[in-house]
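Researcher: Please generate the 3D structure of the following complex. Treat every line as part of one assembly.
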Amino acid sequence: MSEEGKKLYVKIHATEDMKKLMTDYYIQAKTAPGTEKKICWITSGGPVEFLIAMDVIPVYPENHGAMCGASRTSVQLAEVAEEMGFSRDLCSYARLDIGQAVTGGGPIGGLPRPDFLLCCNNICGTVLKWYEHVSRYYDVPMFFFDTPFIHKETKEHALEYVRKQCVDLIEFLEKQTGKEFSEEKFAEVALKSVEAVDLWKRVLSTAEHKPSPLTCFDAFIHMAPIVTLRGTQQVVDYYRLLLAEMEERIEKGISAVPDERFRLVWDNIPIWYEMRNLGNLFASRGACLVADTYTSAWAVDIRVDEPLKSMADAYTKVYLNISIDLMVEQVISLIERFDADGLVMHSNRSCKPYSLGQYDIARMVTERTGKPVAIIEADMTDSRAYSEAQVRERIEAFLESLES
Amino acid sequence: MEIDSKIHEIKDDPYKPAKEWKERTWGKVVGYFCSYAPEEIIYASGALPVRIIGRNKAATLSGAHLQNYCCSLARTSLDMALEGDFDFLDGTVFVHTCDTMQRLSDIWRLNAGAGAHFDVVLPTFLGGKNAYEYLRSELSSFKKSFENEFGKISDDDLRRSIDVYNRNRQLLEELYSLRIDRPEVLSSEKLYMIVTSSSLMEKNEHNKLLESLLSELKASSSSGDSGGGKSVARIFGIGSVMEEWDFLRILKEAGGTFVDDDFCNGRRYFDGLIQQTDDPIEGIARRISERAICPCKHTNTYARADDILERVMDSRAEGVIFFQFKFCEPHAFDYVALKEALDKASIPSMLIEIEQGSVSLEQLRTRIEAFIETIRG
Ligand code: SF4
Ligand code: SF4
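Model: Done. Output below.
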């Protein structure tokens, strides 16, 4: 499998730069304790621009969770939390994070201790319960950034609530860092964030080209900087580099998957421990996953003229904070934009807000576009809940059905 | 007791009283899921709010919409809706609590909803000025959309409704205090049927039943239906919905009873009265912010454990039973912190995790008997 697999991948040169960027970042974070630099653990959908502007190092347990999943150390860490009484049915990012705090295990020897926490529930309610635990465990303060869920329309009083919390957050950060918030600096960071997000969107859009120069498996790996460090210059530089490489690929006719025959959209968080194998499986049949609902979640719009207002809007409207009908619209627009032949949904045992509703989404997507949908049952980092044979069989049958 | 026949009715068919009420009055009935639902607003319109609590039967039809790693409360409730059990409803109100409820609301609206559908997106944060202002606006906005479907609600309607609800909460509070002193007067099986029936029938009628029950209980000096010579083992219950009647029967047979709880069809349902002020919505918002908190909400990181520990002490409970639905994230997370707080205070506890429709009673019996033996030393 791996031998056959190697030939299927066209290596992205920028990957080395990204690895360096992320390694430097983690070294900086891990050496921060004891210096005057403050560390804030933040949820993946959280408004990181405030932290960057205040010179605080953001640390993302979810990004770390993905790393633990990919390096297959997650189960061992999750088991530590289970020993402590946390149910095996809870989100595996939360479980493995609770475990790594105790043992310092995982590929980078654990995350640095937080000085304070920023928990934003625009991705799920789970993060609140998880961060409450972290807050007690390290005995550090938590800022809870509450973003009301959108069922049908965005209500003005909900946005107003979020805007006011931006102001409270600034006050909280000033207190925690002992520094004054500078609007100038914030505007600068917001500008860079917008630029990086824009570049990231353009990177993802290159997959509209046929054949596509990148797959969503590439996007999953290259999304780390946009999630963690947007608002910094390095991230802008990095995505320029990546975009140039993708554009060059298009020019030279290099496709991510040799002999691209099918174009598919992926839904939900990757199955981190199995990503390479799945990537190979799809590639071996000429199937390219050209887009996904996960990496495009970070394509938020912030307007520089009204940063606070537009940030409140952007952070409230992320993919996981909207109703099933609104999600369907986004999935369909991905299918149309990327001219996809079908949809692959990862029903992710760990993540209820992402997964409950998928059955209905699948039905509606097929009804409206006529495109087939395959649903595979797994967990993003807990491989104990994964049946390789079953998933392979499901995908193979799906790809075969596309042939006919 | 007059209340007996009523509560047995709801054991067989929880919605019989509401359906009969509807036939009798030609009124509207509105279903809701969570104890944070602003029932007072619904009731003020003249409609009857009834709680949806799932059922004790393995889920089937909902499998086309919900994965099997979703809590059984959501799955069995959706089953009932898909089978048409809720066709008598004129609307359903969903309140923002956990991730599962949030998605269930959409699925319900798209597949099963009878009548109007409302989402009350309460804040998850229940502390501070901003959250409170948002909560008030959201309640007002709910009232407006509710009025569009069910007719105008005046402030006086709201005040009258609040009076009825306050009365019910007072009476239930009285019943709880009476039982804390003399748990033997009423089994916990009956207690939860009584609290649950409060959310399934006309409130004024329920108040009358409660009044006569309380005067009967106060008058009787003898021990009630818990029987037996030994005093009962005093247990504090923690969880979401407690409607596993067979479990409560087993608990009683094993010599135990709940003396107080943190269930959402227990104390979390009736905790806290509403202050009558110029703006009735303001009063409703205050109670929501201040009542016994659910694990889906946040004020500060220690609030819930502190509050529960205090109530465990006040109720002189000898042990705690966590009664949770499998796959329920908010409760499963809190379990660890609560257990730790109880351990520190040397209060024994046990965890029971169930799925509606697949409970092994014999296994439960053995575990409960063993637990009661331990706390009895
Ligand atoms: S995986 Fe899902 S449940 Fe877990 S933290 Fe992320 S959004 Fe929340
Ligand atoms: S709080 Fe728990 S039991 Fe209630 S709907 Fe949510 S997951 Fe299910």
